[in-house]
Amino acid sequence: MPPPKIRVFATPAIVAEAAAQHIAESAESALRDTGSFAIALSGGNTPRMLYQLLADEPYVSRIDWSKVEIFFGDERCVPPEDRESNFHRASETLLDLVPIPPANIHRIRGEIDPQAAAIEYGQLLKQRFADGGLDFALLGMGEDGHTASLFPGSAALAETNHRCVANFVDNLNAWRITMTVPFLNRSKQILMLVTGSAKAERVQQALEPTDAAEPLPVQLINPSSGHLTWFLDAAAACME
Ligand code: 6PG
């Protein structure tokens, strides 16, 4: 597999602008090729500026939102109106602000039993993608090297079959629901968005080739035929 493409930008705001441009270009390409654009959004704080950019000009007009399908790389086991919900965060900064048909937004039902929610979402992904994958997966990385809700040492890292699983995260003492490594690696484009000096050491570790028995979860993200790109700010790239 080709090494990931790594682009470093001076500030988080410039990272967000570059990411919006990358997503818009990927959307336009997918819409030309297939007439639809299936993107999985990530949670956390990093993508907030990106979502706000996509919900504003020029992107709100540039992207044909009627043909965009929204998925979620992971979700917390909370109701959709909970401030911790990735669906809630994406809705208030993006989804409520663009002309996307509600039927095109596929949220993970964090409010129901985690196993049931994971099975339900996995069946939706199977029905929509069969043995294929997303056009675009937007991912972040935690300071521990997790991505989506694939946390170090958690059972979901070993999943080789399902597209989505419930994953108990010991250090959060909480269930999460997450897309799995095999499914994410079927994406055509994966964009890893990481900013801030607190993640610099982990970024350096993540981007070094490893044959460790237990690589970082983020090191398992290697699309089989798609493209993986990291967008970093100078702080996360230890270039401050
Ligand atoms: C989540 C995210 C998670 C996130 C990282 C980074 O549900 O929290 O999907 O994988 O991308 O934890 O979070 P920050 O962007 O807040 O640093």
Written overview of the protein:
It contains 7 helices and 9 strands. With 240 residues, it is of the alpha/beta class. It has one domain (5-233): Rossmann fold, CATH 3.40.50. It has a 6-stranded parallel sheet, with helices on one face. Strands 4-7-6 form a 3-stranded antiparallel sheet.
Which CATH C-level class is it? Alpha Beta
- The parts where pLDDT drops under 50 for at least 5 residues are none
Main β-sheet description: 6 strands, parallel
H/E element sequence: EHEHHEEHHEEEHEHE
Number of strands: 9
The CATH architecture category equals 3-Layer(aba) Sandwich
| Adjacency order of strands in the biggest sheet | 1-9-8-5-2-3
Indicate how many domains the architecture comprises.
1
Distance between the termini: 30 Å
Task: Based on the model shown, name its key terms.
240 residues, alpha/beta, Rossmann fold, 7 helices, 9 strands, globular, binds 6-phosphogluconic acid
